[in-house]
UniProtKB/TrEMBL annotation:
One of its GO terms (cellular component) is nucleus. It is found in: Nucleus. It comes from Vigna unguiculata (Cowpea). This is TF-B3 domain-containing protein. The keyword DNA-binding applies. It holds the Pfam family B3.
Length: 91
């Protein structure tokens, strides 16, 4: 499971700009929508992570270390629902 990782810079900036407290995440191949709390910290350095709900999202989508995920949000829409594209890595 992917845990305790800062969100990508561009996506974190989008979340901060719109002052979201929670986001609804939907994986690319299933219909489960999971509400995730956002953990936003400004000091000592900026950090934006998913909190409660992230473990459920990872479990529903069978995410593990090495999987690539892309968060897609349209800047104009200000929606709290985010589509997540997942690419599984196979070794």
């Amino acid at each position: 499971m992917v845990n305790n990782v800062d969100l990508p810079t561009d996506f974190a900036g989008y979340v901060r700009k719109h002052r979201f407290k929670r986001l609804e995440l939907q994986g690319s191949k299933n219909t489960f929508i999971v509400q995730c709390k956002l953990l936003v910290h400004n000091s000592p350095k900026k950090s934006t992570k998913f909190g409660k709900g992230w473990k459920d999202f990872c479990r529903f989508n069978r995410l593990k270390e090495g999987d690539v995920i892309v968060f897609a949000a349209h800047n104009q829409m200000r929606k709290k629902k985010i589509k997540v594209y997942i690419k599984k890595e196979f070794f």
